[in-house]
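Quick one:
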Amino acid sequence: MLRKNKTETIDFREFMAGNHHTQRQPSPNTSIYSIFPAITPGSFFPVHDPVFALFLTGSAAIAGSAFFQHFAAKNGSPAISEAIGVISRFVFPVIVYGAIFWFFFTL
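Output:
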């Protein structure tokens, strides 16, 4: 797949006599593992990275505001629930697009 195989031509008489088998040279052992980075839990969740900590804080803010909005609407405070909804309509896309940019720029 990584190199082109050469086509071997065999004489008809050699083929019929059974003398056409040639030794194949083994392919060189190339280490493809050096191309890919190591996958560890630390690389998936770099908690000590300030940008990732900001991402975790934004995710917690999204979950927390959704919880508080639902809690306020359930307890009969539609004004508070509506205020949280208005703020969330602006803040959530900013956090989500920021997380997407963070993901693509840190690959």
